[in-house]
């Protein structure tokens, strides 16, 4: 038995559970209001299922937008399947929660960031606003809009 509580992994589990619950609601009721999601995931994760041309084009990571057009959102305890449109070419993707690097809903300035063991070296450095690019989907955002707040708890892991 471990002699310490692994808060980092417990928090990741809770955050993935939150993503699952949000996606379950969207699968059942659709996206409410202006809500939409940017999901960045590891395309090389062994359980990710995407078309070969997508993994060739995005070796390492990819960000998808769940907003105007999506179909067949199927949410499970391990991940979700969704059909998205890539230049008038519908593709079905399977994304396990453990492959997700960031989950952002810029409409309410909400964001989660999952750091891996490789990212721990960077934990001592201040974040470089990783959500800024993803958090501004509209070409004319309101002037009083602030960046999404990113929650990162891995810096407290040992």
- Silhouette: globular
Average pLDDT:
79
**C-alpha termini separation:** 16 Å
Structural class: alpha+beta
What would you say this structure looks like, in words?
With 158 residues, this protein is α+β, with helices and mostly antiparallel strands. 18% of the residues lie in helices and 28% in strands. It has helices spanning 7-29, 52-57; strands at 37-42, 61-66, 70-75, 79-85, 90-96, 100-105, 110-113, 149-151. The strands form two sheets. A five-stranded mixed β-sheet has the order 2-1-6-7-8, with no helix packed on it. Strand 3 (70-75) and strand 4 (79-85) form a beta hairpin. The longest helix is centred in the N-terminal third of the chain and has 23 residues, at 7-29. The chain is globular and about 55 Å long. 23% of the residues are buried. Residues 119-146 have low confidence and may be disordered.
Task: Name a few traits of the molecule.
alpha+beta, 2 helices, 28% strand, globular
Short note summarizing the structure:
This protein is 18% helix and 28% strand. It is built from two helices and eight strands, in the order αβαβββββββ.
């Amino acid at each position: 038995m471990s002699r310490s509580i692994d808060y980092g992994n417990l928090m990741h589990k809770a955050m993935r559970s939150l993503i699952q619950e949000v996606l379950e609601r969207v699968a059942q009721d659709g996206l409410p209001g202006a809500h939409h999601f940017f999901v960045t995931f590891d395309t090389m994760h062994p359980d990710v299922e995407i078309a070969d041309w997508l993994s060739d084009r995005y070796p390492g990571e990819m960000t998808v937008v769940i907003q105007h057009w999506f179909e067949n959102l199927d949410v499970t305890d391990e991940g979700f399947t969704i059909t998205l449109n890539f230049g008038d070419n519908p593709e079905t993707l399977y994304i396990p929660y453990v492959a997700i690097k960031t989950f952002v809903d810029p409409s309410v300035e909400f964001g989660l960031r999952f750091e891996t063991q490789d990212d721990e070296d960077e934990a001592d450095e201040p974040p470089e606003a990783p959500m800024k690019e993803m958090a501004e989907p509209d070409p004319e955002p309101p002037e009083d809009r602030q960046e999404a707040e990113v929650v990162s708890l891995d810096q407290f892991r040992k």
